[in-house]
Each structure stands twice: as structure tokens, then as C-alpha cells.
Structure to design on (846 residues):
């Protein structure tokens, strides 16, 4: 073939929204039905309740004093006339009924005795402050019935739902559970994601780099992005260009994870190992085992970076294949997967993307939605960092957002409003 | 004493801002000078760099191809005339110099051979896509010198600072470090905080509640709040009302933590165990050991909830004593400590508090700054939840913010702007 038929060779491009919808459909059962696990409160911070939590006891569990002072019967109080003080009730103790015509010293949190219907703070009495023995107390006014008395169940009644399913367990919410005596909670198990980097050129960070070799940034990037989105990393693997090796790595990844993410091996080159295992021209007979329930569709998404994408199943487990360029792989995760991982973890997101004004004009090639790396300005605007080169991991690291330039837009003026994806 | 001298007994109140400043001064050396620790990248998500990180190698480490295509000498290209294809360079391999008048197949990421000064993507050539053997290629136009060639160091030069000290390690930043071959980072060690709950009435969540007993919510609440703010929990303990026991618990707390937080035992009652160990009337001879370098000042802060506060040192370690009421303790942490724990972890906060409009009128007792529990409305306003009772942990759990009503304000109209503290 020596004719110049580049146009004919190009497959039709899938829109970003279509690919997002297809990925969401693939993962929908995983997101909708999450298992729950039981954790002690100290391990549940920021996790999401998998079920309503009801209070096993009332809070407060008993009628108690809101202040250090004297418990009295309001009917017995005459301003200026002394009441005999017949004893003391400390927090953590029990209380006998209050005899008519008497008062009792009472500490904050201590049970209010039967008969008493108000507490008067010590500093509002003739006693002023607790010190030596107190035998009598004079009140300046008749307290209101119920004053400084916390009724049992006034905060939470026994059986009340303290927190509903779906609640994210902030510190204040863990405190409420602890106050009800709850020590363990059922929380949603986050999506377990396996991450596999492919490419003969890849070397693990920290190892020695040989000629032609490149450090694997995608393993670190995708694993961290999964964790940041609320998922857990089930498996991390790496494979060169041998389809037999990759098939074995993917088998582990699929067995351990709810979802497999691969990077690399999906371009137009001669050695595209992911396509060699999962693509239409894969040589099934060369693999170490049969690929039951395995089917991946490769497509080109009208997005830059991150055009070459694949989605399907490997041995029954959903799999998404990202391009190998570190910026492309990271953008792919943000645009196609991040919200689903967060949703599976029970985190609610409204899906709205904020709008910012461009600090400078931007041009964009037509036909592909650009996800430019952007940094926020002090004034609230956004500017492109590092240009459009998809290999610029340092620029990606300086970016706060992705600037979303629609496929049909070729130029934007300074001050134009753009949607951004927060990083 | 039978006269009614309540007014005289009340100590002067410290302003919230003064107490914040005093706590900040106490913790300033801890916040300003944090130790660093060395962690693998996979454990460093959201941590903060303790030192600049420089690139040990350039990224890319060698001149390489940005596309699957053909490497050529632009001076040799004549549109429409075939160039012989003399071989192939895969990613991860090495490349011999390109002979004049020839082209070589090259894969994305593969080294561009000496002599070649451009790459032409395969789909823009007569070949269209890689498949069977290719012996010659026809180009439609002369490529620009440098086209689709990534120069060594074009992303990061060897020795460049990739990320400066103080950078929070988002996934994109870990990716950049991995791309440079960096496997470990020096990150700031967060503040190690010990949390001690006091009170004879306290029982651990999950245990059986006896008469007069209360579940300890503060241990859970403060430990979770410390973690959410970026600190670590060094020690969690609980003590009843025996000063000897509390002194022993505090000794462990102070030995293991950079900071000790206590709750309870600081009010006006007869059994205030924290004051019994640390207050001016403490009986040092009754304690199991001498309290060297121990001094705590108790004061009443003009804040509600959370008035009774103490700050100082226990055996040299900074200590803050919060009131025992769970809402009071949580508000105390938010208002006095949270920003300092975050700052010690290297997290930058501007300290600004957003303003919201009240959905309804609010009245407030004079002389004390109110920190009301507030929930945000869909319309962007804020409303009080659960009233002002400081024991309402369930209301605190429903709150999104604390509504800050200044001490000199007695009433606010619907629609009035208020500062809020985000929870």
C-alpha cells in the first residue's frame, strides 16, 4: 500500500459524554449495590453509613443536671429563706428522692432526684461556689420548673434513627454515635480497584533506569487517584509486551478487584499489548488460559489527551483501558471514573462543574474536546499551565483543574467562561 | 456564708480571640518546627512535603517519539516520493543512528534515532496503520523539524525542583514524582495529639450503661477531629475522679503526645478532677510523682458553649483542658485547636470564615460569644439546629457549621449576615 489514505484509516470518534455514559452503565451494578462492613468507630472517619443507625439507649439516659448547683422542688422555694442542704449527688452516682422542703448539692451530669424539678447554679445562690461543707442555701428567686434539668431522651430517644444510611461519618457524627453507646458501625465497602501498567519500557520508581526505559508513573498516579476518590486499591501490577504475561497479571487483577484499570498498550503501534490480549486480533490460542466472559471494545474518544479508550470485561470483571501517557491516563480517570468511584463509596456529588474565566485567550484544534491543565489565579480566573503536550507530568502536577474546551470550539477569548474539572 | 454574692464569685471572662492567641502562642514552636519522616509514595497521599524534591533524572530521560509513526530526516523528505523503511524502534529498546535518505518505524515513547529530526504519525502516511511488513513510506508533506519529537528534559530537567517543600501530595503530584523515578519522599510529621476523657460517670461506647452513667463521646469526638484536621492520635485514655489515676494517665498522654487534650473536670463543681491535679488548689503531695514543669491556667472564656478552659503544660508537654460536655468539647476543638493541627501538618488555611445569611431571627445572651450549631439551606442561607443546649450531640451531628454570634450582639434579624465555622 503506497497510496496516501490516512483519512480512510481513522475510526469514527466517540463523544466524551457517550463514553462517560457507557462507562457509567458498565459500572452501574457495582455502584448501586455495595457490600457493607462492620468497623469500630475509630476506623470509620469519613466512611459512609451503609444502614440507618438507631439509638439503643436514650441520650441523656436519665434526667440529669445541666449545672453544678442545687436541686430543689420549686414549690418549696421562698426567696431569701434558707433551705437545708441534705446531701450531695455527684456525676456517676445514684440519687434518693428529694425530701420536701430540702435542697441537695448536685454536680453537672448527675441524676436529678425524684421530687426535684429544677436546678439552681451554685453561683446564683448564697453559697457562691462549692468549697467547705454547706448546710443550707438561700435562693434569690423561685426557679422556673425544669430549669437546668435535662430530661431523659431530650437529645435522642431510644430507638430514634440517630444517623440515616448514606451519612458520611464526620467527627461530629461519630461523637453522636459514641454518645449513644454505639461502638461499631456498618459502612459501605468502597470500590476495590486493580491498577495495571503496561509497556516494555516501564521501570518501577526507585529502580535504575536503562537505555530507552521510562519510570512507571501510572501505577502511582492511578492508585493514588483511586484512594483520593474514596476507593481502595485491590492490586497493583505491571507487565511488559508479552501477552501471556499480561493475561496472567490481568487474571490476578480481575480476581482481586471489582474493576480493573490498565494503562498503555491501546494505541496504533505495532506492540499494543492490551489490544494483543483483549483486541479483535488477539491470538486466544497463545494465552495461558481461556478468556471466558471477556470482551473489550476499543474506541477513540473525541478528547485530548486521552483519546484511545477501551471498556468491557475481563473474565467477568469490568475493565477500562486507558492510554499509557501519564497525563492521558490521569485525565481519563478524572473524566470517566472518578465520580463513579466516589459514588460507590457513598459519597454524594452533584456532578456540577464550576465555571471560571480564562486569564488569556486559548486556541484549540477542532473535533476533539480538550482537557487543558489549568491553574487558578488569585483573582478567581484560570490559566493554562504547561501547554497541551500530554507528556507533561510536571505541568499536570502544578494544575488545580482541567479546563474543558468543547470539541466544536476552536478559539476562546480572554475572559471567556469555561467549565473546569477540579483535580 | 448566707449572703447572696453570686456576682462577686464570677471570675472575669477571657475573650475568644485572646484565648485563641494564647493557645496559638503555646503551640507555636510545635507548629513551626515539625520533624519529617520518609515514606514510600503509596503511603504519602495528602501528606505535605517537608523538603524540596529535585529530579534525579530528566523527564523524558531521552529524546523520544510522541506518536506511532516514522522517524525521518526532514531534509530528506520529498512529498509523494517513497522513503525506504530500514527497521523499527519499539518502546523500551535502543536506536542506531538513522541513515540519510531512509525512514524507520517508531513507536510512541521509543527513542528517536540520532539524525532523525521529526516523527510523522502512521495515520498521516501512505501506510495508514501498522500491520504487515512495511518496506517503504510516502509522506504527503515535509514535516516541521521537531514534529512529534519530545526532547530530553522537556518536561523536567535533571536537578530541577519538581515540587517545593510545603506541597500537599495530591495524586497528580505523586505521579510527577514517580515519573522522575522517585520512590520515597520526606513528609511533615503531623502533630501527635493525646486525648484524655475524665469523669466518674463515663463508660466506653459498647459497654453496659449502669445507673447514673454516661457514654464517653469525647474520646471518639476529639480523636476523630484530630485526624480530620490532619493530626495523628498518639494516645487515648479515660480517667474517673481519682487525681492519682488521672495523673498517671496524663503522664502517659504527655510522654506520647506533642499535645494533650483533656475533657471534663474543669467546672465549678466539687469534683473537678482536672483541676484537682492541675489547679491552684491541687494537693501535690497526694500524687504518685512530682509534677515538674507543670503549670495550667484555668479561665472562663466568653464563649458559649465551651466557656471553662485551661492551658499550660503537664510535665513539659502542652495541655489544653476542655469542658466535658460533648458539644462544648467539640466546639472548643474547632475554635481553638483545629487550625493549629492543620498548620502543623503543613496544610495551609487562610483562616477566613465564610459569611452566610440567617434564615430566621436569632436572639443571643449578652456578654458571651455564641457558637450555635447551624445547617446550610439549599438557598445558601443558614439556620440554627437543635437550639442552644450544649448537650445536644444529635443536633451537633446534623450541623454543617457553627454560627458565630459576637458577644455584644443580642439579636439578629432574618437575613442578617453571620460568620460561620465550617464543621
Amino acid at each position: 500500500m503506497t497510496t496516501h489514505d490516512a483519512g480512510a484509516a481513522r475510526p469514527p470518534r466517540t463523544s466524551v459524554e457517550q463514553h462517560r455514559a457507557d462507562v457509567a452503565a458498565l459500572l452501574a451494578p457495582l455502584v448501586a449495590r455495595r457490600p457493607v462492613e462492620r468497623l469500630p468507630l475509630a476506623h470509620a472517619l469519613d466512611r459512609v453509613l451503609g444502614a440507618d443507625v438507631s439509638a439503643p439507649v436514650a441520650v441523656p439516659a436519665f434526667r440529669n443536671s445541666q449545672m453544678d448547683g442545687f436541686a430543689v422542688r420549686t414549690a418549696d422555694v421562698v426567696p431569701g429563706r434558707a433551705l437545708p442542704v441534705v446531701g450531695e449527688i455527684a456525676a456517676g452516682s445514684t440519687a434518693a428522692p428529694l425530701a420536701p422542703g430540702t435542697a441537695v448539692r448536685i454536680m453537672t451530669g448527675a441524676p436529678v432526684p425524684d421530687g426535684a424539678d429544677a436546678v439552681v447554679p451554685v453561683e446564683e445562690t448564697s453559697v457562691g461556689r462549692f468549697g467547705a461543707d454547706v448546710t443550707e442555701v438561700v435562693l434569690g428567686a423561685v426557679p422556673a420548673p425544669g430549669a437546668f434539668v435535662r430530661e431523659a431522651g431530650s437529645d435522642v430517644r431510644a430507638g430514634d434513627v440517630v444517623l440515616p444510611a448514606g451519612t458520611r461519618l464526620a467527627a461530629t457524627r461519630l461523637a453522636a454515635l459514641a454518645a449513644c453507646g454505639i461502638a461499631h458501625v456498618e459502612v459501605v465497602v468502597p470500590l476495590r480497584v486493580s491498577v495495571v501498567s503496561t509497556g516494555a519500557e516501564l521501570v518501577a520508581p526507585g529502580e535504575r533506569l536503562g537505555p530507552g526505559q521510562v519510570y512507571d508513573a501510572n501505577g502511582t498516579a492511578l492508585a493514588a487517584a483511586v484512594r483520593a476518590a474514596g476507593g481502595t486499591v485491590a492490586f497493583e501490577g505491571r507487565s511488559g509486551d508479552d501477552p501471556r504475561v499480561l493475561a496472567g497479571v490481568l487474571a490476578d487483577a480481575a480476581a482481586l478487584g471489582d474493576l480493573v484499570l490498565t494503562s498503555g498498550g491501546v494505541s496504533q503501534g505495532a506492540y499494543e499489548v492490551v489490544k494483543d490480549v483483549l483486541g479483535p486480533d488477539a491470538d486466544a490460542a497463545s494465552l495461558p488460559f481461556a478468556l471466558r466472559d471477556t470482551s473489550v471494545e476499543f474506541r477513540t474518544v473525541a478528547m485530548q489527551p486521552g483519546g484511545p479508550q477501551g471498556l468491557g470485561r475481563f473474565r467477568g470483571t469490568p475493565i477500562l483501558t486507558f492510554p499509557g501517557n501519564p497525563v492521558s491516563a490521569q485525565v481519563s480517570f478524572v473524566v470517566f471514573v472518578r465520580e463513579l468511584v466516589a459514588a460507590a463509596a457513598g459519597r454524594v456529588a452533584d456532578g456540577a462543574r464550576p465555571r471560571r474565566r480564562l486569564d488569556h485567550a486559548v486556541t484549540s484544534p477542532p473535533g476533539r474536546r480538550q482537557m487543558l491543565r489549568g491553574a487558578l489565579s488569585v483573582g478567581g480566573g484560570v490559566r493554562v499551565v504547561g501547554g497541551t503536550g500530554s507528556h507533561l507530568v510536571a505541568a499536570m502536577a502544578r494544575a488545580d483543574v482541567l479546563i474543558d474546551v468543547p470539541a466544536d470550539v476552536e478559539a476562546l477569548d480572554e475572559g471567556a467562561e469555561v467549565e473546569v474539572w477540579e483535580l
